[in-house]
């Protein structure tokens, strides 16, 4: 079985942690190569997602000091999901398997061993799943777990407590290349591809250095994108609410007629006002949800590129293949 592993590591303003990340990945690669689990042609690809600090210069220096490291520089900040996809689509013809992980060292590098073992056992997708959230604050833990539960309620097929730490075979990457969504939610998208999969449990560590690149505002936007990208259940809930209100309105009409016939029409003022406010609010909410879906449709039909690669550094014998694999994306 072929054993070329490429690790895709998205980076955004990660100058404080990159050297340590590179050090630990070098040690891990040496161990895997010595045990004949991966090929000597395996590489680590750092994807600079439009960083404003010294991240790209560090990536270039790492490449110069050790050819195991490669780099992709995006022309602008395209977002975490697009940065991950850019790396995967660039290396999909160079590797037999690819692992995506964040640069902050919160994902357990030691879990890579079991992921590779599962690949050799025939699994095409291996999900890295948190066994616990001991390092998270109460708010972070509550919101994250609520997100996965809510996604389940909304009908989206996601792996509970799985982020973007996963292994995919080149076969899976080839199918992923056929997906042209602009609003990316890879955790759900990979699940829709199918293929034989399994989970590898690991304990997530604290961030080694720097600060989180996912503040509350981005987390909420990410959750909204995930829901609208993989579930139409909110639209169905609107339909159900509309039907319910229609039934209620029939009884309201009957009640209004009865009040009118008894000569006490003025008594219905409070209920009328409440109904107007309630129905008006429901209509605005419904329009807002529908608008979110229409906005997604608007973005999808434009078919703008999800990412643009400004520069990449890799070994010369891979340059032509690397260039070809990144075209048209």
The gist of it:
By secondary structure, the protein is α/β, with parallel strands linked by helices. It is built from eleven helices and eight strands. It folds into two domains: 5-230 and 305-325, Spore Coat Polysaccharide Biosynthesis Protein SpsA, Chain A (Alpha-Beta Complex), CATH 3.90.550; 233-302.
Topology:
Layout: E1 5-11, H1 18-34, E2 43-48, H2 55-65, E3 69-74, H3 80-91, E4 97-100, H4 111-120, E5 125-130, H5 138-153, E6 162-169, H6 170-176, H7 186-193, E7 197-202, H8 216-230, H9 233-261, H10 269-302, E8 309-313, H11 319-325
Parallel strand pairs: 1-2, 1-4, 2-3, 5-7
Antiparallel strand pairs: 3-8, 4-6, 5-6
Helix pairs in contact: 9-10
What does this protein structure show overall?
With about 325 residues, the chain is of the alpha/beta class. The chain folds into 2 domains: about 5-230 and about 305-325, Alpha-Beta Complex (Spore Coat Polysaccharide Biosynthesis Protein SpsA, Chain A), CATH 3.90.550; about 235-300. Helix content is about 50%, strand content about 15%. The protein is built from 11 helices and 8 strands. An 8-stranded mixed beta sheet has the order 7-5-6-4-1-2-3-8, with helices on both faces. Helix 1 links the parallel strand 1 and strand 2 (about 45-50). It is elongated and about 90 Å long. The chain starts with a strand and ends with a helix.
Helix and strand composition category: alpha/beta
In CATH, the architecture of the largest domain is Alpha-Beta Complex
The percent of residues in helical segments reads: 40-55%
Radius of gyration: 25 Å
Secondary structure: number of strands? 8
Poorly predicted tracts of residues: 319-328
- Percent of sequence in beta strands: 5-15%
CATH class of the largest domain, named Alpha Beta
Would you identify the CATH H-level superfamily of the largest domain? Spore Coat Polysaccharide Biosynthesis Protein SpsA, Chain A
């Amino acid at each position: 079985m072929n054993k070329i592993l490429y690790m895709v590591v998205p980076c955004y303003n990660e100058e404080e942690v990159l050297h340590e990340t590179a050090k630990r990945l070098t040690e891990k690669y040496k161990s895997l190569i010595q045990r004949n689990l991966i090929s000597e042609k395996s590489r680590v690809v750092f994807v600079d997602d439009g960083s404003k600090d010294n991240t790209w210069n560090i990536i270039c220096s790492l490449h110069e000091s050790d050819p195991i490291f490669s780099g992709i520089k995006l022309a602008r900040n395209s977002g975490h999901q697009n940065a991950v996809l850019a790396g995967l689509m660039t290396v999909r013809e160079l590797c037999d398997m690819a692992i995506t992980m964040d640069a902050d060292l919160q994902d357990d590098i030691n879990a890579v061993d079991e992921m590779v073992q599962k690949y050799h056992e025939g699994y095409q997708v291996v999900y890295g799943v948190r066994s616990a959230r001991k390092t998270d604050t109460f708010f972070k833990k509550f919101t994250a777990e609520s997100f996965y539960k809510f996604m389940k309620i909304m009908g989206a097929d996601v792996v509970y407590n799985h982020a973007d730490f996963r292994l995919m075979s080149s076969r899976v990457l080839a199918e992923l290349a056929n997906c042209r969504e602009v609003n990316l939610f890879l955790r759900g998208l990979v699940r829709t591809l199918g293929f034989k999969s399994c989970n590898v449990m690991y304990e997530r560590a604290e961030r080694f250095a720097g600060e989180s690149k996912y503040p509350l505002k981005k987390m909420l936007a990410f959750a909204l994108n995930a829901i609208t990208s993989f579930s139409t259940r909110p639209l169905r809930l609107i339909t159900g609410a509309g039907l319910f209100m229609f039934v209620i309105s029939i009884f309201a009409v009957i009640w209004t007629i009865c009040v009118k016939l008894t000569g006490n029409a003025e008594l219905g003022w409070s209920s009328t006002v409440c109904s107007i406010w309630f129905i008006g609010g429901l209509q605005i909410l419904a329009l807002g949800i529908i608008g979110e879906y229409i906005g997604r449709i608007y973005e999808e039909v434009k078919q703008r590129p999800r990412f643009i690669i400004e520069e990449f550094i890799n070994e010369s014998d891979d340059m032509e293949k690397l260039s070809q694999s990144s075209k048209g994306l």
